[in-house]
Write a structure and sequence with these properties.
Blueprint (H helix, E strand, L loop, with lengths): L1 H23 L15 E10 L2 E9 L2 H4 L6 E7 L2 E6 L5 E4 L13 H4 L12 E5 L2 E5 L7 E11 L4 E4 L3 E5 L1
Antiparallel strand pairs: 1-2, 2-7, 3-4, 3-8, 4-5, 6-7, 8-9, 8-10
Length: 172
Amino acid sequence: MLGLMTFGLTMRRMLLTLTAAAVLLLPGGARAGITDPVLAVSAVDAAKVDGARTLLVQGTFEFGTVLQLGYPFFVVVFQGPTFARYPLAGAPASGTSSLLADGVLADTEVPTFLGQGSAPPAGVRVVSVLRDAVRVTLPVTFTAGAATVVLVAYLPATDGVVMSNSVSVTLP
Protein backbone atom coordinates (compact mmCIF):
# COMPACT_ATOMS: atom_id res chain seq x y z
CA MET A 1 0.00 0.00 0.00
CA LEU A 2 2.82 2.38 0.82
CA GLY A 3 4.33 1.72 -2.61
CA LEU A 4 1.06 2.74 -4.32
CA MET A 5 0.87 5.94 -2.29
CA THR A 6 4.46 6.84 -3.16
CA PHE A 7 3.78 6.06 -6.83
CA GLY A 8 0.63 8.26 -6.74
CA LEU A 9 2.53 11.11 -5.10
CA THR A 10 5.33 10.85 -7.66
CA MET A 11 2.80 10.90 -10.51
CA ARG A 12 1.11 14.01 -9.08
CA ARG A 13 4.47 15.80 -8.82
CA MET A 14 5.31 14.89 -12.41
CA LEU A 15 1.90 16.08 -13.58
CA LEU A 16 2.32 19.39 -11.72
CA THR A 17 5.82 19.82 -13.14
CA LEU A 18 4.63 19.14 -16.70
CA THR A 19 1.69 21.52 -16.28
CA ALA A 20 3.95 24.27 -14.97
CA ALA A 21 6.38 23.74 -17.86
CA ALA A 22 3.53 23.86 -20.39
CA VAL A 23 2.22 27.12 -18.95
CA LEU A 24 5.68 28.70 -19.05
CA LEU A 25 6.26 27.63 -22.64
CA LEU A 26 2.93 28.82 -24.02
CA PRO A 27 3.14 31.42 -26.82
CA GLY A 28 2.65 34.97 -25.58
CA GLY A 29 4.80 34.41 -22.53
CA ALA A 30 7.53 36.55 -24.01
CA ARG A 31 7.23 39.45 -26.38
CA ALA A 32 9.85 41.03 -28.61
CA GLY A 33 10.56 44.74 -28.45
CA ILE A 34 9.55 47.15 -31.18
CA THR A 35 12.23 47.39 -33.85
CA ASP A 36 10.64 50.00 -36.10
CA PRO A 37 9.40 52.82 -33.89
CA VAL A 38 6.97 55.48 -35.01
CA LEU A 39 8.79 58.82 -34.86
CA ALA A 40 7.02 62.16 -35.24
CA VAL A 41 7.83 65.67 -34.05
CA SER A 42 4.68 67.64 -33.21
CA ALA A 43 6.23 70.80 -31.76
CA VAL A 44 9.57 72.32 -30.80
CA ASP A 45 9.87 75.09 -28.23
CA ALA A 46 13.12 77.05 -27.94
CA ALA A 47 14.27 79.05 -24.94
CA LYS A 48 17.36 80.99 -23.90
CA VAL A 49 18.19 81.35 -20.23
CA ASP A 50 21.45 82.91 -19.00
CA GLY A 51 22.93 82.57 -22.50
CA ALA A 52 22.17 78.85 -22.81
CA ARG A 53 19.71 77.68 -25.47
CA THR A 54 17.43 74.73 -24.86
CA LEU A 55 14.89 72.91 -27.00
CA LEU A 56 11.84 71.00 -25.89
CA VAL A 57 11.07 68.51 -28.67
CA GLN A 58 7.53 67.14 -28.38
CA GLY A 59 6.11 64.26 -30.34
CA THR A 60 5.83 60.52 -30.67
CA PHE A 61 8.87 58.31 -30.28
CA GLU A 62 7.84 54.97 -28.75
CA PHE A 63 8.90 55.99 -25.23
CA GLY A 64 9.18 52.44 -23.88
CA THR A 65 11.33 51.31 -26.76
CA VAL A 66 13.74 54.22 -26.99
CA LEU A 67 14.49 54.09 -23.28
CA GLN A 68 15.96 50.61 -23.64
CA LEU A 69 19.64 50.69 -22.79
CA GLY A 70 21.64 51.19 -25.94
CA TYR A 71 18.68 51.73 -28.28
CA PRO A 72 19.94 53.68 -31.33
CA PHE A 73 17.63 56.71 -31.02
CA PHE A 74 18.86 60.27 -31.62
CA VAL A 75 17.54 63.81 -31.47
CA VAL A 76 19.33 65.74 -34.21
CA VAL A 77 19.39 69.54 -34.34
CA PHE A 78 21.12 71.41 -37.13
CA GLN A 79 21.56 74.97 -38.30
CA GLY A 80 23.19 75.02 -41.70
CA PRO A 81 26.09 72.55 -41.51
CA THR A 82 26.38 72.94 -37.71
CA PHE A 83 24.76 70.11 -35.76
CA ALA A 84 24.24 68.54 -32.37
CA ARG A 85 23.25 64.90 -32.03
CA TYR A 86 21.79 63.52 -28.81
CA PRO A 87 21.54 59.78 -28.30
CA LEU A 88 19.41 58.81 -25.32
CA ALA A 89 22.01 56.16 -24.50
CA GLY A 90 25.43 57.73 -24.72
CA ALA A 91 27.22 61.02 -25.05
CA PRO A 92 26.10 63.76 -27.45
CA ALA A 93 28.20 64.87 -30.40
CA SER A 94 28.44 68.15 -32.25
CA GLY A 95 30.29 69.59 -35.18
CA THR A 96 29.75 70.47 -38.80
CA SER A 97 28.78 68.21 -41.68
CA SER A 98 28.70 68.88 -45.40
CA LEU A 99 25.78 66.41 -45.53
CA LEU A 100 23.59 69.14 -44.01
CA ALA A 101 24.59 71.87 -46.49
CA ASP A 102 21.34 71.36 -48.42
CA GLY A 103 19.28 71.85 -45.25
CA VAL A 104 18.15 68.22 -45.15
CA LEU A 105 19.34 65.05 -43.44
CA ALA A 106 18.36 62.24 -45.81
CA ASP A 107 17.87 58.70 -44.55
CA THR A 108 20.64 57.49 -46.89
CA GLU A 109 23.05 59.94 -45.21
CA VAL A 110 22.38 58.79 -41.64
CA PRO A 111 25.02 56.00 -41.42
CA THR A 112 27.77 58.44 -42.50
CA PHE A 113 26.35 61.29 -40.40
CA LEU A 114 26.39 59.19 -37.22
CA GLY A 115 30.16 58.85 -37.56
CA GLN A 116 30.72 62.60 -37.69
CA GLY A 117 31.25 65.10 -34.88
CA SER A 118 33.05 65.06 -31.56
CA ALA A 119 32.28 65.55 -27.90
CA PRO A 120 30.62 68.93 -27.32
CA PRO A 121 31.47 71.31 -24.48
CA ALA A 122 30.23 70.52 -20.98
CA GLY A 123 26.56 71.26 -20.46
CA VAL A 124 25.44 70.08 -23.92
CA ARG A 125 23.22 67.15 -23.07
CA VAL A 126 19.81 65.56 -22.84
CA VAL A 127 18.23 67.34 -19.88
CA SER A 128 15.03 65.31 -19.55
CA VAL A 129 13.00 62.62 -21.27
CA LEU A 130 9.24 62.43 -20.83
CA ARG A 131 6.67 60.14 -22.43
CA ASP A 132 6.18 62.59 -25.29
CA ALA A 133 9.06 65.07 -25.05
CA VAL A 134 12.84 65.40 -24.88
CA ARG A 135 14.63 68.54 -23.64
CA VAL A 136 18.20 69.21 -24.81
CA THR A 137 20.75 71.99 -24.39
CA LEU A 138 22.45 73.34 -27.51
CA PRO A 139 26.14 74.12 -28.03
CA VAL A 140 27.13 77.79 -28.13
CA THR A 141 27.87 77.37 -31.84
CA PHE A 142 24.12 77.63 -32.46
CA THR A 143 23.04 81.24 -32.97
CA ALA A 144 19.72 83.06 -33.09
CA GLY A 145 17.76 82.09 -36.19
CA ALA A 146 16.28 79.08 -37.93
CA ALA A 147 17.27 75.53 -36.97
CA THR A 148 15.88 72.10 -37.87
CA VAL A 149 15.00 69.19 -35.58
CA VAL A 150 14.54 65.55 -36.58
CA LEU A 151 14.30 62.28 -34.65
CA VAL A 152 16.29 59.32 -35.97
CA ALA A 153 16.47 55.62 -35.12
CA TYR A 154 19.22 53.62 -36.81
CA LEU A 155 18.56 49.89 -36.93
CA PRO A 156 21.00 48.51 -39.52
CA ALA A 157 20.28 44.84 -38.80
CA THR A 158 16.50 45.12 -39.26
CA ASP A 159 14.84 48.23 -40.61
CA GLY A 160 17.76 50.53 -41.43
CA VAL A 161 16.90 54.17 -40.81
CA VAL A 162 13.61 55.36 -39.33
CA MET A 163 13.16 59.14 -39.32
CA SER A 164 10.54 61.58 -38.14
CA ASN A 165 9.36 64.62 -39.98
CA SER A 166 11.73 67.60 -39.90
CA VAL A 167 10.53 70.62 -37.95
CA SER A 168 11.91 74.12 -38.22
CA VAL A 169 12.31 76.20 -35.08
CA THR A 170 13.52 79.76 -34.54
CA LEU A 171 16.21 79.96 -31.89
CA PRO A 172 16.17 83.06 -29.66
